[in-house]
Amino acid sequence: MDATRIQPRPQSGADAPPLDQSPSRHPRLDQHLAGRYRIEALIASGGMSDVYRAVDEHLERAGSPDCQVAVKILRQALTHDADAVSMLAREASRSMRLAHPGIIRVRDLEQDGDTWFIVMELLEGEPLSRLIQRHRPRGLPWKGCRWIIQEVLDALEYSHNQGIVHADLKPSNVFLTRDGQVKLLDFGVARALAPQQRMEDYLAPRQKDETRMFGYTPAYASPSLMAGNEPRPHDDLYALACITHELVSSRHPFERRELTDAERASYPLKRPKHLPARVWRVMRPLLRQSTPECSTASWKSAIRPRPWRVPGAAAMGGVLASLTLAGAQAGLEMGSDTASSPEERLASLGVLAEDAAPQRILAALPALTDLERDAVLRHREPVLSNYYTRVLTQATRGLQQGELRLVPEALELAQQARTLYPNHSAITRAREQFQQRRTSLVSALREQWHQQLAQGGFAQASRKQALADLHDRLTLLDAEPPLPQEDTRAAYRAELQEAMTASRESALSNLVAVGDLAFGHDADTSAALAWARVQAGFSPGNPSGDAFGKQLDRLEERVAGAESVAELNAAFEAVQELPAAESGHSKRLKSLHQTLANRYMQQARQRLDEQRLESAGPLLKRATDLTHRAQASP
Protein backbone atom coordinates (compact mmCIF):
# COMPACT_ATOMS: atom_id res chain seq x y z
CA MET A 1 0.00 0.00 0.00
CA ASP A 2 0.91 3.64 0.01
CA ALA A 3 3.27 5.55 2.24
CA THR A 4 2.23 6.51 5.73
CA ARG A 5 2.00 10.24 6.47
CA ILE A 6 4.25 10.46 9.46
CA GLN A 7 7.22 12.21 10.93
CA PRO A 8 8.94 9.02 12.17
CA ARG A 9 11.31 8.62 15.02
CA PRO A 10 14.97 8.27 14.02
CA GLN A 11 15.73 4.75 12.87
CA SER A 12 18.90 2.75 12.65
CA GLY A 13 20.11 -0.71 11.85
CA ALA A 14 17.67 -3.34 10.73
CA ASP A 15 14.63 -1.23 11.51
CA ALA A 16 15.57 1.49 9.03
CA PRO A 17 13.65 1.46 5.74
CA PRO A 18 15.62 1.04 2.52
CA LEU A 19 15.21 4.72 1.73
CA ASP A 20 18.00 7.15 0.84
CA GLN A 21 16.80 10.48 2.18
CA SER A 22 19.73 12.53 0.90
CA PRO A 23 18.71 15.69 -0.97
CA SER A 24 20.46 14.51 -4.13
CA ARG A 25 18.01 11.61 -4.42
CA HIS A 26 14.93 13.77 -3.89
CA PRO A 27 14.89 16.82 -6.15
CA ARG A 28 11.62 18.11 -4.64
CA LEU A 29 13.41 19.26 -1.49
CA ASP A 30 13.23 23.06 -1.10
CA GLN A 31 10.68 23.27 -3.92
CA HIS A 32 7.45 25.28 -3.56
CA LEU A 33 4.04 23.84 -4.44
CA ALA A 34 1.05 26.02 -5.31
CA GLY A 35 3.07 29.05 -4.26
CA ARG A 36 2.48 28.10 -0.64
CA TYR A 37 4.06 24.83 0.52
CA ARG A 38 7.85 24.70 0.94
CA ILE A 39 9.16 21.13 0.90
CA GLU A 40 11.64 20.47 3.72
CA ALA A 41 12.26 16.74 4.04
CA LEU A 42 11.18 13.36 2.74
CA ILE A 43 9.25 11.40 5.37
CA ALA A 44 8.23 8.18 3.65
CA SER A 45 7.95 6.63 0.22
CA GLY A 46 5.51 4.14 -1.25
CA GLY A 47 4.47 2.61 -4.53
CA MET A 48 2.10 5.41 -5.50
CA SER A 49 3.39 8.48 -3.71
CA ASP A 50 6.05 10.16 -1.61
CA VAL A 51 5.29 12.01 1.61
CA TYR A 52 7.20 15.12 2.63
CA ARG A 53 7.33 17.45 5.60
CA ALA A 54 6.54 20.94 4.40
CA VAL A 55 5.87 24.44 5.70
CA ASP A 56 2.66 26.29 4.91
CA GLU A 57 4.16 29.72 4.25
CA HIS A 58 0.78 31.46 4.55
CA LEU A 59 0.47 30.24 8.14
CA GLU A 60 4.15 30.92 8.75
CA ARG A 61 3.78 34.56 7.73
CA ALA A 62 0.72 34.84 9.99
CA GLY A 63 2.87 33.72 12.91
CA SER A 64 1.00 30.46 13.45
CA PRO A 65 2.90 27.89 15.52
CA ASP A 66 1.24 25.07 13.54
CA CYS A 67 2.61 25.90 10.11
CA GLN A 68 4.21 22.49 9.41
CA VAL A 69 2.18 20.05 7.34
CA ALA A 70 2.60 16.74 5.57
CA VAL A 71 2.31 16.73 1.77
CA LYS A 72 1.57 13.49 -0.06
CA ILE A 73 2.62 13.81 -3.71
CA LEU A 74 1.52 11.40 -6.40
CA ARG A 75 4.49 9.84 -8.20
CA GLN A 76 5.36 11.57 -11.47
CA ALA A 77 4.81 8.39 -13.48
CA LEU A 78 1.18 8.26 -12.29
CA THR A 79 0.15 11.89 -12.82
CA HIS A 80 -1.56 11.04 -16.11
CA ASP A 81 -3.12 7.80 -14.85
CA ALA A 82 -6.83 8.53 -14.37
CA ASP A 83 -7.26 5.69 -11.87
CA ALA A 84 -4.34 6.83 -9.74
CA VAL A 85 -5.48 10.46 -9.70
CA SER A 86 -9.03 9.36 -8.97
CA MET A 87 -7.85 7.23 -6.05
CA LEU A 88 -5.87 10.15 -4.58
CA ALA A 89 -8.85 12.46 -5.00
CA ARG A 90 -11.16 9.93 -3.42
CA GLU A 91 -8.82 9.50 -0.45
CA ALA A 92 -8.77 13.27 0.06
CA SER A 93 -12.52 13.74 -0.26
CA ARG A 94 -13.40 10.88 2.07
CA SER A 95 -10.78 11.80 4.64
CA MET A 96 -12.02 15.40 4.68
CA ARG A 97 -15.49 14.06 5.47
CA LEU A 98 -14.12 12.22 8.51
CA ALA A 99 -13.69 14.87 11.19
CA HIS A 100 -12.65 12.69 14.12
CA PRO A 101 -9.70 12.95 16.54
CA GLY A 102 -8.78 9.34 15.78
CA ILE A 103 -8.45 9.90 12.02
CA ILE A 104 -5.70 11.90 10.36
CA ARG A 105 -6.94 15.34 9.34
CA VAL A 106 -6.70 16.04 5.61
CA ARG A 107 -6.89 19.71 4.62
CA ASP A 108 -7.12 19.69 0.84
CA LEU A 109 -6.34 18.12 -2.52
CA GLU A 110 -4.37 20.47 -4.77
CA GLN A 111 -2.74 20.55 -8.18
CA ASP A 112 0.38 22.44 -9.25
CA GLY A 113 0.91 21.93 -12.97
CA ASP A 114 0.93 18.18 -13.47
CA THR A 115 1.66 17.54 -9.77
CA TRP A 116 -1.22 16.25 -7.67
CA PHE A 117 -0.88 16.28 -3.89
CA ILE A 118 -2.79 16.07 -0.60
CA VAL A 119 -2.10 18.42 2.31
CA MET A 120 -2.67 16.97 5.78
CA GLU A 121 -1.65 17.34 9.40
CA LEU A 122 1.89 16.37 10.31
CA LEU A 123 2.08 13.61 12.91
CA GLU A 124 5.05 12.77 15.10
CA GLY A 125 5.40 9.32 16.56
CA GLU A 126 5.45 5.82 15.13
CA PRO A 127 3.16 3.27 13.46
CA LEU A 128 1.75 0.37 15.44
CA SER A 129 3.88 -2.04 13.41
CA ARG A 130 7.02 -0.65 15.04
CA LEU A 131 5.48 -1.00 18.52
CA ILE A 132 4.74 -4.66 17.78
CA GLN A 133 8.31 -5.22 16.59
CA ARG A 134 9.75 -3.76 19.78
CA HIS A 135 7.72 -6.14 21.97
CA ARG A 136 8.68 -9.37 20.26
CA PRO A 137 8.49 -12.19 21.13
CA ARG A 138 6.14 -11.78 24.13
CA GLY A 139 3.79 -9.04 22.96
CA LEU A 140 2.22 -6.27 25.00
CA PRO A 141 0.31 -6.81 28.23
CA TRP A 142 -3.43 -6.37 27.83
CA LYS A 143 -3.52 -3.18 29.90
CA GLY A 144 -0.87 -1.71 27.61
CA CYS A 145 -2.87 -2.18 24.42
CA ARG A 146 -6.54 -2.10 25.46
CA TRP A 147 -6.66 1.69 25.12
CA ILE A 148 -5.19 1.48 21.60
CA ILE A 149 -7.91 -0.94 20.50
CA GLN A 150 -10.53 1.30 22.13
CA GLU A 151 -9.30 4.32 20.17
CA VAL A 152 -9.26 2.38 16.89
CA LEU A 153 -12.80 1.15 17.57
CA ASP A 154 -13.99 4.69 18.23
CA ALA A 155 -12.52 5.87 14.92
CA LEU A 156 -13.93 2.90 13.00
CA GLU A 157 -17.37 3.33 14.55
CA TYR A 158 -17.38 6.96 13.48
CA SER A 159 -16.15 6.10 9.98
CA HIS A 160 -18.75 3.36 9.56
CA ASN A 161 -21.50 5.69 10.75
CA GLN A 162 -20.39 8.10 8.02
CA GLY A 163 -20.77 5.26 5.51
CA ILE A 164 -17.06 4.65 4.91
CA VAL A 165 -15.14 1.39 5.35
CA HIS A 166 -11.37 1.70 5.68
CA ALA A 167 -10.75 -1.61 3.86
CA ASP A 168 -6.98 -1.68 4.41
CA LEU A 169 -6.59 -1.60 8.19
CA LYS A 170 -3.20 -2.96 9.30
CA PRO A 171 -0.55 -2.08 11.92
CA SER A 172 1.28 0.33 9.62
CA ASN A 173 -1.96 2.28 9.11
CA VAL A 174 -2.49 2.80 12.85
CA PHE A 175 -0.28 5.58 14.15
CA LEU A 176 0.68 6.41 17.75
CA THR A 177 1.55 10.06 18.23
CA ARG A 178 4.04 11.32 20.78
CA ASP A 179 1.25 12.99 22.77
CA GLY A 180 -0.60 9.70 23.23
CA GLN A 181 -3.15 9.83 20.41
CA VAL A 182 -4.10 7.01 18.06
CA LYS A 183 -4.72 7.96 14.44
CA LEU A 184 -6.00 5.90 11.51
CA LEU A 185 -4.10 6.60 8.28
CA ASP A 186 -4.44 5.91 4.60
CA PHE A 187 -8.04 5.81 3.43
CA GLY A 188 -6.71 5.37 -0.10
CA VAL A 189 -8.76 2.24 -0.78
CA ALA A 190 -11.58 3.17 1.58
CA ARG A 191 -14.97 2.46 0.10
CA ALA A 192 -18.23 4.29 0.60
CA LEU A 193 -21.12 2.03 1.55
CA ALA A 194 -23.51 1.88 -1.37
CA PRO A 195 -26.44 3.83 0.13
CA GLN A 196 -24.15 6.72 1.11
CA GLN A 197 -22.03 7.25 -1.99
CA ARG A 198 -21.63 10.90 -2.92
CA MET A 199 -20.78 12.87 -6.01
CA GLU A 200 -17.08 12.98 -5.15
CA ASP A 201 -17.05 9.18 -5.30
CA TYR A 202 -17.22 9.54 -9.06
CA LEU A 203 -14.39 12.02 -9.58
CA ALA A 204 -12.95 10.08 -12.52
CA PRO A 205 -14.15 7.27 -14.77
CA ARG A 206 -13.23 3.91 -13.29
CA GLN A 207 -12.49 1.17 -15.77
CA LYS A 208 -11.64 -1.10 -12.86
CA ASP A 209 -11.96 -0.94 -9.10
CA GLU A 210 -9.02 0.62 -7.24
CA THR A 211 -9.06 -2.12 -4.61
CA ARG A 212 -8.42 -4.64 -7.34
CA MET A 213 -5.98 -2.37 -9.14
CA PHE A 214 -3.79 -1.65 -6.13
CA GLY A 215 -4.82 -4.54 -3.86
CA TYR A 216 -5.52 -5.03 -0.18
CA THR A 217 -3.00 -6.30 2.32
CA PRO A 218 -3.72 -10.05 2.25
CA ALA A 219 -2.60 -10.76 5.83
CA TYR A 220 -5.33 -8.45 7.16
CA ALA A 221 -8.00 -8.81 4.46
CA SER A 222 -11.05 -10.89 5.32
CA PRO A 223 -11.98 -13.85 3.12
CA SER A 224 -14.88 -11.74 1.82
CA LEU A 225 -12.52 -9.02 0.61
CA MET A 226 -10.10 -11.52 -0.87
CA ALA A 227 -13.01 -13.00 -2.81
CA GLY A 228 -13.59 -9.58 -4.42
CA ASN A 229 -16.76 -8.67 -2.55
CA GLU A 230 -17.66 -5.10 -1.66
CA PRO A 231 -16.05 -3.95 1.61
CA ARG A 232 -18.30 -3.99 4.65
CA PRO A 233 -17.77 -2.80 8.26
CA HIS A 234 -17.08 -6.33 9.52
CA ASP A 235 -14.04 -6.45 7.19
CA ASP A 236 -12.42 -3.68 9.25
CA LEU A 237 -13.26 -5.58 12.45
CA TYR A 238 -11.66 -8.75 11.03
CA ALA A 239 -8.49 -6.73 10.40
CA LEU A 240 -8.69 -5.34 13.94
CA ALA A 241 -8.93 -8.91 15.30
CA CYS A 242 -5.69 -9.76 13.50
CA ILE A 243 -4.04 -6.59 14.81
CA THR A 244 -5.20 -7.28 18.38
CA HIS A 245 -3.78 -10.81 18.20
CA GLU A 246 -0.44 -9.40 17.05
CA LEU A 247 -0.39 -6.75 19.77
CA VAL A 248 -0.76 -9.20 22.65
CA SER A 249 1.34 -12.03 21.20
CA SER A 250 3.57 -10.37 18.50
CA ARG A 251 2.28 -13.12 16.16
CA HIS A 252 -0.29 -12.97 13.37
CA PRO A 253 -3.16 -15.39 14.14
CA PHE A 254 -2.59 -17.29 10.86
CA GLU A 255 1.16 -16.62 10.55
CA ARG A 256 0.31 -14.40 7.55
CA ARG A 257 -0.74 -17.42 5.48
CA GLU A 258 -3.51 -17.30 2.90
CA LEU A 259 -5.94 -20.07 3.83
CA THR A 260 -8.80 -21.80 2.14
CA ASP A 261 -12.14 -21.88 3.95
CA ALA A 262 -11.49 -25.47 5.03
CA GLU A 263 -8.00 -24.64 6.30
CA ARG A 264 -9.30 -21.63 8.18
CA ALA A 265 -12.04 -23.68 9.86
CA SER A 266 -9.52 -26.26 11.13
CA TYR A 267 -6.59 -23.97 11.88
CA PRO A 268 -5.45 -24.39 15.52
CA LEU A 269 -6.24 -20.94 16.84
CA LYS A 270 -5.12 -20.41 20.43
CA ARG A 271 -5.98 -17.57 22.77
CA PRO A 272 -2.88 -15.44 23.44
CA LYS A 273 -1.83 -15.53 27.08
CA HIS A 274 -2.33 -11.79 27.58
CA LEU A 275 -5.78 -11.67 26.01
CA PRO A 276 -8.86 -11.80 28.31
CA ALA A 277 -11.22 -14.69 27.60
CA ARG A 278 -14.17 -12.32 27.10
CA VAL A 279 -12.30 -10.59 24.25
CA TRP A 280 -11.30 -13.93 22.70
CA ARG A 281 -14.96 -14.95 22.63
CA VAL A 282 -15.60 -12.04 20.24
CA MET A 283 -12.40 -12.42 18.22
CA ARG A 284 -12.32 -16.17 17.63
CA PRO A 285 -15.56 -16.49 15.59
CA LEU A 286 -14.54 -13.39 13.63
CA LEU A 287 -11.17 -14.89 12.74
CA ARG A 288 -12.78 -18.21 11.86
CA GLN A 289 -15.37 -16.29 9.86
CA SER A 290 -17.98 -18.62 11.34
CA THR A 291 -19.98 -15.58 12.49
CA PRO A 292 -18.48 -12.68 10.52
CA GLU A 293 -21.30 -10.27 11.39
CA CYS A 294 -19.64 -8.56 14.33
CA SER A 295 -20.23 -4.99 15.50
CA THR A 296 -18.13 -2.32 17.14
CA ALA A 297 -20.61 -2.43 20.04
CA SER A 298 -19.80 -6.07 20.81
CA TRP A 299 -16.10 -5.29 20.56
CA LYS A 300 -16.41 -2.35 22.93
CA SER A 301 -18.42 -4.37 25.40
CA ALA A 302 -15.76 -7.08 25.39
CA ILE A 303 -12.77 -4.81 25.94
CA ARG A 304 -14.45 -2.55 28.49
CA PRO A 305 -12.94 -3.04 31.96
CA ARG A 306 -15.24 -5.05 34.17
CA PRO A 307 -17.02 -2.73 36.66
CA TRP A 308 -16.25 -3.51 40.25
CA ARG A 309 -19.06 -5.39 41.93
CA VAL A 310 -19.65 -6.03 45.62
CA PRO A 311 -20.45 -9.74 46.12
CA GLY A 312 -21.78 -9.26 49.63
CA ALA A 313 -19.46 -10.03 52.50
CA ALA A 314 -16.59 -11.13 50.25
CA ALA A 315 -15.95 -7.65 48.90
CA MET A 316 -16.45 -6.06 52.31
CA GLY A 317 -14.03 -8.57 53.71
CA GLY A 318 -11.44 -7.62 51.11
CA VAL A 319 -11.52 -3.98 52.11
CA LEU A 320 -11.60 -4.80 55.81
CA ALA A 321 -8.68 -7.18 55.40
CA SER A 322 -6.66 -4.35 53.91
CA LEU A 323 -7.67 -2.04 56.74
CA THR A 324 -6.95 -4.62 59.42
CA LEU A 325 -3.52 -5.44 58.01
CA ALA A 326 -2.60 -1.76 57.63
CA GLY A 327 -3.92 -1.02 61.11
CA ALA A 328 -1.91 -3.88 62.63
CA GLN A 329 1.24 -2.61 60.93
CA ALA A 330 0.57 0.83 62.39
CA GLY A 331 -0.10 -0.59 65.85
CA LEU A 332 -3.81 0.32 65.75
CA GLU A 333 -6.80 -1.57 67.12
CA MET A 334 -9.45 -1.82 64.44
CA GLY A 335 -13.05 -2.14 65.57
CA SER A 336 -12.57 -1.19 69.22
CA ASP A 337 -15.52 -0.63 71.52
CA THR A 338 -14.94 3.14 71.68
CA ALA A 339 -15.47 3.83 67.97
CA SER A 340 -17.49 2.52 65.09
CA SER A 341 -15.87 -0.30 63.15
CA PRO A 342 -14.45 0.29 59.65
CA GLU A 343 -17.28 -1.88 58.33
CA GLU A 344 -19.90 0.36 59.91
CA ARG A 345 -18.16 3.56 58.82
CA LEU A 346 -17.73 2.49 55.20
CA ALA A 347 -21.26 1.09 55.06
CA SER A 348 -22.73 4.29 56.47
CA LEU A 349 -20.92 6.35 53.86
CA GLY A 350 -22.16 4.08 51.08
CA VAL A 351 -18.77 3.73 49.37
CA LEU A 352 -19.06 -0.06 49.05
CA ALA A 353 -22.61 -0.21 47.73
CA GLU A 354 -22.88 -1.92 44.36
CA ASP A 355 -24.55 1.11 42.79
CA ALA A 356 -22.38 3.74 44.53
CA ALA A 357 -21.68 6.53 42.06
CA PRO A 358 -18.06 7.63 41.70
CA GLN A 359 -19.07 11.14 42.80
CA ARG A 360 -20.42 9.69 46.06
CA ILE A 361 -17.21 7.75 46.67
CA LEU A 362 -15.06 10.82 46.07
CA ALA A 363 -17.28 12.98 48.29
CA ALA A 364 -16.84 10.51 51.15
CA LEU A 365 -13.04 10.45 51.06
CA PRO A 366 -12.48 13.52 53.32
CA ALA A 367 -14.41 11.79 56.13
CA LEU A 368 -12.15 8.70 56.07
CA THR A 369 -8.93 8.04 57.90
CA ASP A 370 -5.79 7.73 55.80
CA LEU A 371 -5.92 3.93 56.08
CA GLU A 372 -9.59 3.76 55.10
CA ARG A 373 -9.04 6.21 52.25
CA ASP A 374 -6.15 4.21 50.81
CA ALA A 375 -8.11 0.97 51.03
CA VAL A 376 -11.18 2.44 49.34
CA LEU A 377 -9.10 4.03 46.58
CA ARG A 378 -7.42 0.70 45.93
CA HIS A 379 -10.59 -1.40 45.87
CA ARG A 380 -12.75 1.12 44.01
CA GLU A 381 -10.01 1.95 41.48
CA PRO A 382 -11.90 0.45 38.46
CA VAL A 383 -14.98 2.60 39.14
CA LEU A 384 -13.03 5.80 39.81
CA SER A 385 -10.53 5.38 36.99
CA ASN A 386 -13.36 4.75 34.52
CA TYR A 387 -15.07 7.91 35.77
CA TYR A 388 -11.95 10.06 35.43
CA THR A 389 -11.02 8.72 32.00
CA ARG A 390 -14.61 9.01 30.74
CA VAL A 391 -15.01 12.65 31.73
CA LEU A 392 -11.55 13.60 30.47
CA THR A 393 -12.10 11.76 27.18
CA GLN A 394 -15.50 13.42 26.68
CA ALA A 395 -13.96 16.82 27.39
CA THR A 396 -11.13 16.08 24.96
CA ARG A 397 -13.60 15.18 22.21
CA GLY A 398 -15.56 18.31 23.01
CA LEU A 399 -12.41 20.40 22.61
CA GLN A 400 -11.85 18.79 19.22
CA GLN A 401 -15.23 20.22 18.16
CA GLY A 402 -14.69 23.56 19.92
CA GLU A 403 -17.19 22.68 22.67
CA LEU A 404 -16.00 23.99 26.06
CA ARG A 405 -18.93 23.05 28.31
CA LEU A 406 -17.09 20.17 30.03
CA VAL A 407 -13.73 21.91 30.37
CA PRO A 408 -14.16 23.42 33.87
CA GLU A 409 -15.20 20.08 35.36
CA ALA A 410 -12.42 18.29 33.48
CA LEU A 411 -9.81 20.73 34.77
CA GLU A 412 -10.99 20.13 38.31
CA LEU A 413 -11.06 16.34 37.91
CA ALA A 414 -7.67 16.26 36.18
CA GLN A 415 -6.07 17.87 39.22
CA GLN A 416 -7.99 15.60 41.60
CA ALA A 417 -7.06 12.46 39.66
CA ARG A 418 -3.40 13.47 39.61
CA THR A 419 -3.47 13.63 43.41
CA LEU A 420 -5.35 10.37 44.02
CA TYR A 421 -3.85 8.22 41.24
CA PRO A 422 -0.55 9.85 40.24
CA ASN A 423 0.83 6.75 38.49
CA HIS A 424 -2.33 5.38 36.84
CA SER A 425 -1.45 4.92 33.17
CA ALA A 426 -4.98 5.21 31.70
CA ILE A 427 -5.84 8.32 33.75
CA THR A 428 -2.45 9.89 32.99
CA ARG A 429 -2.93 9.25 29.28
CA ALA A 430 -6.46 10.71 29.31
CA ARG A 431 -5.28 13.72 31.32
CA GLU A 432 -2.34 14.36 28.97
CA GLN A 433 -4.56 14.08 25.90
CA PHE A 434 -7.01 16.53 27.44
CA GLN A 435 -4.26 18.99 28.35
CA GLN A 436 -2.73 18.68 24.88
CA ARG A 437 -6.08 19.46 23.24
CA ARG A 438 -6.64 22.32 25.65
CA THR A 439 -3.18 23.72 24.91
CA SER A 440 -3.78 23.45 21.16
CA LEU A 441 -7.12 25.26 21.42
CA VAL A 442 -5.64 27.97 23.64
CA SER A 443 -2.88 28.44 21.07
CA ALA A 444 -5.45 28.69 18.25
CA LEU A 445 -7.62 31.18 20.18
CA ARG A 446 -4.59 33.31 21.01
CA GLU A 447 -3.67 33.31 17.34
CA GLN A 448 -7.22 34.46 16.51
CA TRP A 449 -6.83 37.15 19.18
CA HIS A 450 -3.68 38.47 17.49
CA GLN A 451 -5.42 38.33 14.09
CA GLN A 452 -8.40 40.32 15.37
CA LEU A 453 -6.11 42.98 16.83
CA ALA A 454 -3.95 43.10 13.70
CA GLN A 455 -7.01 44.00 11.59
CA GLY A 456 -7.48 47.28 13.48
CA GLY A 457 -10.88 48.95 13.37
CA PHE A 458 -11.08 48.91 17.17
CA ALA A 459 -14.11 51.22 17.20
CA GLN A 460 -16.22 48.69 15.32
CA ALA A 461 -18.87 46.90 17.36
CA SER A 462 -18.05 43.64 15.55
CA ARG A 463 -14.41 43.88 16.64
CA LYS A 464 -15.43 44.47 20.25
CA GLN A 465 -17.81 41.51 20.17
CA ALA A 466 -15.26 39.19 18.54
CA LEU A 467 -12.65 40.04 21.17
CA ALA A 468 -15.18 39.66 23.98
CA ASP A 469 -16.16 36.20 22.70
CA LEU A 470 -12.51 35.13 22.44
CA HIS A 471 -11.85 36.47 25.94
CA ASP A 472 -14.75 34.45 27.34
CA ARG A 473 -13.57 31.24 25.63
CA LEU A 474 -10.03 31.70 26.91
CA THR A 475 -11.41 32.26 30.41
CA LEU A 476 -13.32 28.97 30.18
CA LEU A 477 -10.02 27.29 29.30
CA ASP A 478 -8.37 28.89 32.33
CA ALA A 479 -6.07 30.94 30.09
CA GLU A 480 -5.28 34.61 29.54
CA PRO A 481 -5.25 36.48 26.21
CA PRO A 482 -1.74 37.26 24.93
CA LEU A 483 -0.33 40.77 25.27
CA PRO A 484 -0.73 42.81 22.06
CA GLN A 485 2.31 43.55 19.94
CA GLU A 486 3.84 47.04 19.84
CA ASP A 487 2.55 47.95 16.36
CA THR A 488 -0.97 46.90 17.45
CA ARG A 489 -0.73 49.01 20.63
CA ALA A 490 0.43 51.99 18.57
CA ALA A 491 -2.48 51.55 16.14
CA TYR A 492 -4.96 51.38 19.03
CA ARG A 493 -3.55 54.52 20.66
CA ALA A 494 -3.78 56.41 17.35
CA GLU A 495 -7.39 55.34 16.80
CA LEU A 496 -8.28 56.21 20.41
CA GLN A 497 -6.69 59.66 20.12
CA GLU A 498 -8.51 60.37 16.86
CA ALA A 499 -11.89 59.42 18.36
CA MET A 500 -11.26 61.61 21.42
CA THR A 501 -10.23 64.56 19.27
CA ALA A 502 -13.33 64.18 17.10
CA SER A 503 -15.56 63.50 20.15
CA ARG A 504 -17.08 60.42 18.54
CA GLU A 505 -18.96 59.06 21.56
CA SER A 506 -20.20 55.79 20.03
CA ALA A 507 -16.70 55.00 18.79
CA LEU A 508 -15.22 55.84 22.20
CA SER A 509 -17.61 53.43 23.91
CA ASN A 510 -16.37 50.54 21.77
CA LEU A 511 -12.75 51.67 22.01
CA VAL A 512 -12.88 51.75 25.81
CA ALA A 513 -14.45 48.27 25.90
CA VAL A 514 -11.70 46.95 23.59
CA GLY A 515 -9.12 48.73 25.71
CA ASP A 516 -10.38 47.00 28.84
CA LEU A 517 -10.16 43.63 27.10
CA ALA A 518 -6.81 43.95 25.34
CA PHE A 519 -4.83 47.02 26.35
CA GLY A 520 -5.52 47.52 30.06
CA HIS A 521 -2.00 46.42 31.05
CA ASP A 522 -0.21 48.71 28.57
CA ALA A 523 1.39 51.55 30.53
CA ASP A 524 1.65 53.75 27.42
CA THR A 525 -2.08 53.39 26.80
CA SER A 526 -3.46 53.64 30.33
CA ALA A 527 -3.45 57.46 30.54
CA ALA A 528 -5.24 57.96 27.22
CA LEU A 529 -7.68 55.17 28.12
CA ALA A 530 -8.50 56.89 31.43
CA TRP A 531 -9.32 60.17 29.64
CA ALA A 532 -11.38 58.26 27.09
CA ARG A 533 -13.42 56.78 29.95
CA VAL A 534 -14.21 60.26 31.24
CA GLN A 535 -15.12 61.52 27.79
CA ALA A 536 -17.27 58.44 27.07
CA GLY A 537 -19.20 58.97 30.29
CA PHE A 538 -18.36 55.93 32.41
CA SER A 539 -15.31 56.86 34.41
CA PRO A 540 -15.21 55.88 38.09
CA GLY A 541 -16.33 59.43 38.94
CA ASN A 542 -19.26 59.32 36.52
CA PRO A 543 -20.50 55.79 36.07
CA SER A 544 -24.09 56.62 35.34
CA GLY A 545 -23.72 57.46 31.67
CA ASP A 546 -25.26 55.43 28.92
CA ALA A 547 -22.04 53.50 28.39
CA PHE A 548 -22.26 52.16 31.95
CA GLY A 549 -25.81 51.02 31.27
CA LYS A 550 -24.59 49.16 28.20
CA GLN A 551 -21.94 47.47 30.35
CA LEU A 552 -24.70 46.31 32.67
CA ASP A 553 -26.73 45.08 29.69
CA ARG A 554 -23.87 42.89 28.56
CA LEU A 555 -23.09 41.59 32.04
CA GLU A 556 -26.73 40.68 32.62
CA GLU A 557 -26.70 38.70 29.39
CA ARG A 558 -23.46 36.93 30.39
CA VAL A 559 -24.81 35.94 33.80
CA ALA A 560 -28.12 34.73 32.34
CA GLY A 561 -26.37 32.70 29.65
CA ALA A 562 -23.62 31.20 31.85
CA GLU A 563 -23.78 27.40 31.78
CA SER A 564 -20.67 26.57 33.82
CA VAL A 565 -18.80 27.74 36.89
CA ALA A 566 -16.00 29.07 34.70
CA GLU A 567 -18.46 31.28 32.81
CA LEU A 568 -19.93 32.48 36.09
CA ASN A 569 -16.44 33.21 37.42
CA ALA A 570 -15.63 35.25 34.32
CA ALA A 571 -18.83 37.27 34.77
CA PHE A 572 -18.09 37.66 38.48
CA GLU A 573 -14.64 39.12 37.74
CA ALA A 574 -16.20 41.57 35.31
CA VAL A 575 -18.78 42.62 37.92
CA GLN A 576 -16.00 43.07 40.47
CA GLU A 577 -14.30 45.57 38.18
CA LEU A 578 -17.41 47.76 37.96
CA PRO A 579 -17.31 51.00 39.97
CA ALA A 580 -20.03 51.76 42.48
CA ALA A 581 -23.04 52.99 40.52
CA GLU A 582 -24.90 56.19 41.18
CA SER A 583 -28.62 56.18 41.88
CA GLY A 584 -29.51 55.77 38.21
CA HIS A 585 -28.10 52.25 38.11
CA SER A 586 -27.89 51.17 41.75
CA LYS A 587 -31.02 49.00 41.56
CA ARG A 588 -29.81 47.26 38.43
CA LEU A 589 -26.40 46.59 40.02
CA LYS A 590 -28.10 45.21 43.14
CA SER A 591 -30.28 42.97 40.98
CA LEU A 592 -27.19 41.80 39.05
CA HIS A 593 -25.47 40.78 42.29
CA GLN A 594 -28.55 38.81 43.40
CA THR A 595 -28.92 37.09 40.01
CA LEU A 596 -25.27 36.10 40.10
CA ALA A 597 -25.74 34.76 43.65
CA ASN A 598 -28.72 32.68 42.49
CA ARG A 599 -26.75 31.19 39.60
CA TYR A 600 -23.89 30.22 41.94
CA MET A 601 -26.45 28.64 44.28
CA GLN A 602 -27.81 26.55 41.37
CA GLN A 603 -24.32 25.27 40.58
CA ALA A 604 -23.71 24.49 44.27
CA ARG A 605 -26.97 22.54 44.57
CA GLN A 606 -26.09 20.53 41.47
CA ARG A 607 -22.78 19.52 43.05
CA LEU A 608 -24.46 18.70 46.35
CA ASP A 609 -26.89 16.42 44.51
CA GLU A 610 -23.87 14.70 42.95
CA GLN A 611 -22.19 14.39 46.37
CA ARG A 612 -19.33 16.66 45.23
CA LEU A 613 -19.07 18.40 48.59
CA GLU A 614 -15.58 19.81 48.18
CA SER A 615 -16.42 21.74 45.01
CA ALA A 616 -19.85 22.84 46.31
CA GLY A 617 -18.40 24.63 49.35
CA PRO A 618 -16.68 27.56 47.54
CA LEU A 619 -19.77 28.08 45.37
CA LEU A 620 -22.04 28.29 48.40
CA LYS A 621 -19.71 30.81 50.03
CA ARG A 622 -19.64 33.01 46.94
CA ALA A 623 -23.44 32.84 46.62
CA THR A 624 -23.77 33.88 50.27
CA ASP A 625 -21.30 36.77 49.89
CA LEU A 626 -23.10 38.08 46.79
CA THR A 627 -26.48 37.84 48.54
CA HIS A 628 -25.15 39.86 51.49
CA ARG A 629 -23.72 42.43 49.09
CA ALA A 630 -27.04 42.73 47.27
CA GLN A 631 -28.94 43.12 50.54
CA ALA A 632 -26.52 45.78 51.76
CA SER A 633 -26.93 47.85 48.60
CA PRO A 634 -29.30 50.87 48.79
From TrEMBL:
It comes from the Bacteria. Residues 37-362 form the Protein kinase domain. InterPro entries: Kinase-like_dom_sf (IPR011009), Prot_kinase_dom (IPR000719), Ser/Thr_kinase_AS (IPR008271). Keywords: ATP-binding, Kinase, Nucleotide-binding, Transferase. One of its GO terms (molecular function) is ATP binding. The keyword Chaperone does not apply. Residues 1-28 are annotated as: Disordered. This is Protein kinase domain-containing protein. It comes from Halovibrio salipaludis. The lineage of its organism: Bacteria, Pseudomonadati, Pseudomonadota, Gammaproteobacteria, Oceanospirillales.
